Amino acid sequence: MQTEPAPAALQSGLAIAFQPMIAAASGQPFAWAAIATVHGRDFAQAAAALVPAARLRLEMARIGAAIAGAADAGLLDGEALLAVPVGAADGAPDALLAHLFRAAIEHRVPLDRIVVEIDADERGELARVAALAQACVDRGIAIAFDSFAVGPLAVRLLGRFTPRFVKLDAGLVRTIADSSSRRVIVEGVVRLARNMDVILIANGVARREDLVLLCTMGIRHMQGDWIAPARGRPLPRAHIARREPRAAMPQHRRLAAHQRIAMPRPTAPVALAQAL
Question: DSSP assignment, residue 241?
């Protein structure tokens, strides 16, 4: 039986970090992913120990903190999107999305700048995940399927919904240059995403050789600490005709703003990877 380990204390330990998702054609963030921890622990692990009512409150706290943090940091002053994770474990999409709407209005964040990240991990329940996705679609909110690993749940979700983004599970992406079997799997997802006109994001890029391979496979959008300008090593500019401002490293607490979204060109990711 689940117990409720002081949800107020858990909420006080909630921390949000923002990881950029990079468009390879420009080296610019086209979106920011809100990543939550609770007292330094993974959010999902902390939430799993709670009873449903307390878990719902913690989920709402995560949504509110993500939107408030991005607005306060100036991440949305330009054109970049904000990817907000929303859990489906408790089957309460209406309450969670109503809270998201209120937080967006309070912090003056347009709803078309928010993408709801839905976990497509195979440990989830299809009915609950699908209910959350449907609630987002009904309200006109863009969705992204996170932790996509071509399992039955993920494939069924794609059969019912067309998300704006699909984020490859980091387990598929890390060290992919060393695994021919994972390369075949990812190539299949690339074809599927292309046919559905869905933007595919490689999450968890950690090595140069993996980035090179992913670029040659046709993946134009990346997420990972190793390629993030926030680590102090801005990505080299790709050689494209349209000039875009370089993403700046954050100077103090306020992160770089006025980012521009760049549409990728086929040769640019290769040039980017070769420059690293």
Answer: S
Structure letter (DSSP) for residue 40:
T
Structure tokens at 220: 């134009």
Domains along the sequence of the chain with CATH: 7-231+260-275 (3.20.20.450)
Q: pLDDT tens across 224-276, in order? A: 866 654 343 433 333 222 223 333 333 333 333 333 333 333 334 444 444 44
Q: Which two tokens mark 245? A: 């401002």
φ and ψ at residue 94, rounded to 5 degrees? -60, -45
Task: List b or e across 232-269, with b for residues whose CB sees 16 or more CB atoms inside 10 angstroms.
Answer: eebbebbebeeebeebeebeeeebbeebbebebbeebb
Give yes or no for a contact between 132 and 86, defined as CB atoms under 8 angstroms apart: yes
- How confident is the model over 2-42, as pLDDT tens digits? 444 445 666 778 999 999 999 988 888 999 999 999 988 99
